[in-house]
From TrEMBL:
Gene Ontology molecular function terms on file: transferase activity
CDD domains: GATase1_1 (cd01741)
Keywords: Glutamine amidotransferase, Transferase
Record InterPro entries: ChyE-like (IPR044992), Class_I_gatase-like (IPR029062), GATASE (IPR017926)
Name recorded for this polypeptide: Class I glutamine amidotransferase
Single GO cellular component term: cytosol
PROSITE patterns to which the protein is assigned, alphabetical: GATASE_TYPE_1
Gene3D superfamilies tied to this protein: 3.40.50.880
Amino acid sequence: PFLIHEIEGLKQRLKDNKPTIGICLGAQLIAYALGAKVYAGHKKEIGWDKLKINQKDNNLLSPLENIHVLHWHGDTFDLPDEATLLASSELYPNQAFQIGKNILGLQFHIEIYKDNFERWLIGHTCEIRQTGVSISQLRTDNQLYADKLEQSCSMVIQQYLSQIC
């Protein structure tokens, strides 16, 4: 029920074309607020993997080319009308979208830092075990990929901020 109020506020924000970034559930809420379908995916996507970056010219996510990002979701969405697909993964085609210059939806996580990842593992232990994903592999991958993701994320955010209206 609390999401009803969140979605109403989000609809107004999007209507006003205010700069908005949605990560994971946030991307799903943006899609839903714009009339797209959000639904349970065929499989949970948990772990570090690369994205397929679409239309590399003028794509905010081009700094993420060949970078492992953290995927952690079970739901997915259809693209909203007027959205440009920025990235896909092997499991889910709609990983990132942009509408105009101000609205950015990311299904994956770029906000993770190496030092705060352990809290994710503790908080989601049951979910991880249900999927059969290896916690030790998640830890190892975090050590391998998080620093590079943090650097690339900084470039993505700087590019986004430099072009918003």
